[in-house]
Amino acid sequence: MTSTFQVDLHGVVDLLARHLYSSPRVYLRELLQNGVDAITARRGLAGEDAPATVRLRPLPDGGLEVADSGVGLTLAEAGELLATIGRSSKRDVELGTGREEFLGQFGIGLLSAFMVADEIELTSRSARRHDDGTWPAPVRWRGFADGSYELAEIGPDDPAAPAEPGSVVRLRPRRDMEHWLAPATVTALAQDFGSLLPVDLQVEVRLDLDADAPGSPGHEDGAGTVWRRLSGHELPWKESHATPAERDAALTRYAEQTLGFTPLARIDLDIPVAGLSGVAYVLPAAVSPTTPSSHRVYLKRMLLGTKVDDLLPPWAFFVRCVLDASALRPTASREGLYEDEVLLATREALGAQVRAWALAALAEDSPAGRAFLRVHHLAVRALALQDDDMLDLAARVLPFETTEGTGTLTDLQAALPEGARLLWTPSVEEFRRVAPVAAAQGLGLVNGGYVYDADLLERISRRFPRWRLSPVTSSDVAQALLEVDPLRELEIAGSVQAIDAALAPQDCEVIVRAFEPSVLPAMLLHDRDGDHERETRATVEAADDLWGQVLAGLSGPARSRQLVLNDTNGTVRSLLATTDPQVREAGAQSLYVTALLLSGRPLRSSEATLMNGSLAVLLDRALHPGTTPLEENR
Ligand SMILES: Nc1ncnc2c1ncn2[C@@H]1O[C@H](COP(=O)(O)OP(=O)(O)OP(=O)(O)O)[C@@H](O)[C@H]1O
Questions:
Q1: How many angstroms separate the Cα of 64 from the Cα of each of 104, 173, 174, 203, 444?
Q2: Buried b vs exposed e over 337-368: b needs ≥16 C-beta within 10 Å?
Q3: How far is the CA of 109 from the centre of ligand 1 (A)?
Q4: Please, which residues have CB within 8 angstroms of residue 96's CB and are 6 or more apart in sequence?
Q5: Contact partners, residue 367, CB within 8 Å, separation at least 6
Q6: For the segment 437-488, what is each residue's pLDDT rounded down to a tens digit?
Q7: Which of the 8 DSSP states describes residue 373?
Q8: Which stretch of 43-52, 405-414, 550-559 has the lowest confidence by average pLDDT?
Q9: pLDDT over 90 (residue 619)
Q10: How far apart are CA 591 and CA 136, in angstroms?
Q11: Atom of ligand 1 at shortest range from CA of 334
Q12: Could you tell which of 42, 43, 88 is best to mutate to test the pocket of ligand 1, judged by most ligand atoms within 8 Å of the CB?
């Protein structure tokens, strides 16, 4: 036996009316949409010259009246469409989807009025004559939030009936929701949602409430009120202007008024298959790649939302779009876009147009292109990571931090001897540590530690072998560090051993090499394995016995850091020459901490204590030569 679902009507009405939408404000959008769709249907019946008006009128009792000159409803249509939740006249019966020409499709929008009203009244006069040429009688439908309704024909002269074909919706405010129907709110919402609608949308305003009224287009309608026109605007990017410069200025003003910023540049968007047109504005300041980029989207000229995301590929976080589309589908709440193939294809096409603009801007080396690169280099890096054309350009124009200053890879290569290799460090710390030595050795080093750069340099090295670009390895650095002469090695062996012993508690091994620049006394070499080891040791020390033993099994005996003393440096030579054990120990500790600081690592508290202690010893020895240092400073 097959049964059908039972429906809890009250629950369904409550769900659709109050929980589908994120704000009651959309009730007005749904009413406007029904008016516009009814006008579209009437145009289909009577041609393009059919009247196309939507009038909003605040009622004296705090209610709102929305009157349209649309196709209207007969008693039978009203019975079928208004009395059945989910039934819509706007769906394609065969395809089961919304019809192209209409905004609505789900058959639930009218219920959104229950967010602000306890009762919805719709009176309507159909624009379709009976077969015998007579006009159908006007109808009146009243719906209540508990799911009940009344429907009846009314006399043609009933004061509630529309005088001409079309429909009038009247709402009585729900308690505590009166402000949603207040004249100022209605005007603001209608302007927001409907200013670009292709119908004549007007709102009745009281003159004493409307400071702008004298200058506004409209006509006097009885004492103290005026009709104010809210629609009739062409899409801003389709308006005609005398010159391109005037168009630029007008579209810049539009961005300032609606988006709140003066754009760095503008990209015209046009995707005919999606019925999409609009503009993408390039943000005037850099934003984080993780900032969701949100756009102002109109669907069939009705505002869908001012913060619609996921419309462009993630790398295009540097633009904000304003656009109108006819082929994109809204979600049922009309607060976002439905993720279908059309949206996927549109996202790709929009990305292609933004990308084409960015490529052209970067290729021509114009002031606009340079400004774009300066502000949005992160976006260029993000795009270059996945796009070969952008990578080709980026490799030429993107600035990096290098041992020759900030510049492009071409600049760096030009500053080096013919055929020199380019090296890059995967972290900022490593760059700081290695750069002085690399620069002194004439090695071209690039800092790959900033966002995207390591991956980008990796991609560049694969795509352009001629750059001879590779990550720096310890052998690259070691090659720059010359072994000291064997005689010298013998001479300093004792000192080196003592210094090594002094730094053993820091888990640091000491070696002596000769390298440039001679102003650099020491450098700390440590590889990732070493770091890992060091962390393991720290954990072992902090861990309880059993866990400590397990971890200890994983770490080898070698010290994890290596301090390379520079034998060409005067301070180091003095240190190696001293016979005073306290000075030697304090000097070694100072050099170790200095090298740590130079490597960009934060100091641990034990290391800060070490620095203070060694400084105190050195000062004390300088101030009181020949005496024994203070015990407490050791
Ligand atoms: N002002 C109007 N004039 C003529 N018909 C109307 C009017 N308002 C509503 N209707 C009819 O009532 C039906 C249901 O309207 P409702 O607003 O609930 O859903 P919809 O507009 O079809 O779809 P959606 O839920 O996507 O808005 C419409 O399909 C339309 O046929």
A1: 21, 8, 12, 11, 73
A2: beeeebbeebbebbbebbbebbbebbeeeeee
A3: 7
A4: none
A5: none
A6: 888 777 889 999 999 999 999 999 999 988 889 998 767 776 778 889 999 9
A7: H
A8: 550-559
A9: yes
A10: 99
A11: 26
A12: 88
Which residue type does 55 have? Answer: R
Give every strand in the sheet of 561-566, ordered side by side: 482-483, 508-514, 561-566, 522-525
What gap in Å lies between CA 444 and CA 126, rounded to an integer? Answer: 80
Distance between terminal CA atoms of the chain? 93
Q: Is the pLDDT of residue 119 over 60?
A: yes
Tell whether the model's pLDDT for residue 252 goes beyond 60. yes
DSSP state of 290: T
Cα–Cα distance measured from residue 140 to residue 150, given in angstroms and rounded to the nearest whole number: 8
DSSP 509-559: EEEEEE-S-TT--EEEE--HHHHHHHHHHHHHHHS-HHHHHHHHHHS-SS-
CA-to-CA distance for 253 and 256, rounded, in angstroms? 5
Residues 6 or more apart in contact with residue 625 via CB below 8 angstroms: none
Q: For residue 227, give the nearest of 364, 80, 56 by alpha carbon.
A: 56
Please, is 157 exposed, middle or buried when counting C-beta atoms within 10 Å of its C-beta (0-12, 13-18, 19+)? Answer: exposed
pLDDT, one tens digit per residue, over 356-394 is 999 999 988 888 889 999 999 999 999 999 999 989 988
CA distance 390 to 383: 7
Q: Kindly list the structural domains of the chain, giving each domain's residue range(s) and its CATH number in brackets, ordered by start.
A: 9-229 (3.30.565.10), 236-367 (3.30.230.80), 403-430+438-448+458-472 (no CATH), 482-633 (1.20.120.790)
Which tokens go with 209?
A: 């409430």
Give ipTM to 2 decimals: 0.98
Which amino acid appears at position 472 of this protein?
V
- Is pLDDT above 90 for 570? yes
For residue 586 the two structure tokens come to 């304090």
Task: Give backbone dihedrals phi and psi of 328, rounded to 5 degrees, phi first.
Answer: -80, 145
- 419 against 41, higher pLDDT: 41
Is residue 530's pLDDT more than 90?
no
pLDDT more than 90, % of the chain: 57
Rg from Cα positions in the chain: 38
- Identify the weakest region by mean pLDDT among 45-54, 400-409, 450-459, 521-530: 521-530
- In single-letter form, the type of residue at position 109 comes to G
Report CA(106)–ligand 1 centroid distance (Å). 9
> Any residues with Cβ below 6 Å from ligand 1, and which?
30, 33-35, 37-38, 68, 70-71, 73, 81-82, 88-90, 104-110, 167
Distance in angstroms (rounded) separating the CA atoms of residues 365 and 136: 69
Return the ligand 1 atom nearest residue 66 CA: 1
Q: Residue 517, preceding bond cis, omega within 30 degrees? A: yes
Ligand 1: which atom is nearest the Cα of residue 91?
Answer: 22
Dihedral (Cα; 537, 543, 547, 550), 10-degree rounding: 10
Nearest Cα residue to atom 19 of ligand 1 = 107
pLDDT at 67: 98
Contact assessment for residue 575 and residue 495, using Cβ atoms and an 8 Å cutoff: yes
> Closest ligand 1 atom to the C-alpha of 77?
31
Task: Tell me which residue has tokens 């030569």.
Answer: 625
> How far is it, in rounded angstroms, from Cα 4 to Cα 147?
20
pTM recorded for the entire structure? 0.77
